[in-house]
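Project outcomes to date are best conveyed with an example. Our students and postdoctoral researchers have been running inverse folding experiments weekly, and each run begins with a structure described purely in tokens. The record below, which covers 178 residues, was selected by the lab manager from last quarter's runs and is presented without edits.
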């Protein structure tokens, strides 16, 4: 029996200025510590090449930072840690990566697949230059509750088959990436 893949989406809080109440992928921006975080396995070279197309000063570290930001933001917004268990104590940059060290989870970028890049057209009040990644559910090393709720950035998480997910209230780019 053929099964349709499911996708994880979160509904943004109505208080947000940008995309209030819309269903979106977890995400955000690169933080300085993302460039310092060690990984279990690097991003596949094919994805590095694609990520660095039309980028100023392309390099491996920048490509890895995009993927690490996706891993970190997924955790910060959903409580889902993507990676593999570490054998011993870990050294991580100060800040948001500490939760990974405490759980002994090392990001495994080889489990991520670069899907798309989207740049908001000029003239829009809020602009973004986003990269979208996917990973199989087997890349989840740990799930922590309490990251979604009425006082959080995302008020609801859903895992839905792609055809059902398309029926949610979402930004156009999310539908395109699906």
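After processing, the design step wrote out the following sequence:
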């Amino acid at each position: 029996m053929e099964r349709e893949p499911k996708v994880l989406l979160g509904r943004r809080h109505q208080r947000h200025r940008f995309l209030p109440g819309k269903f979106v992928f977890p995400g955000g921006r690169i933080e300085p510590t993302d460039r310092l975080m060690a990984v279990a396995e690097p991003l596949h070279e094919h994805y590095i090449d694609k990520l660095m197309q039309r980028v100023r000063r392309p390099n491996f570290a920048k490509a890895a930072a995009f993927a690490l930001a996706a891993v970190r933001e997924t955790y910060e917004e959903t409580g889902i840690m993507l990676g593999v268990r570490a054998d011993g104590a870990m050294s991580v940059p100060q800040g948001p990566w500490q939760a990974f060290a405490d759980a002994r989870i090392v990001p495994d970028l080889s489990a991520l697949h670069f899907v798309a890049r989207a740049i908001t057209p000029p003239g829009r009040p809020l602009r973004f230059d986003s990269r979208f990644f996917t990973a199989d559910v087997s890349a989840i090393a740990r799930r922590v509750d309490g990251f979604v709720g009425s006082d959080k950035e995302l008020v609801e998480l859903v895992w839905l088959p792609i055809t059902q997910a398309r029926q949610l209230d979402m930004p156009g780019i999310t539908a395109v990436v699906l």
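Residues 79 and 144 are 5 Å apart (CA to CA). The mean pLDDT is 92. The training component of this project remains on track.
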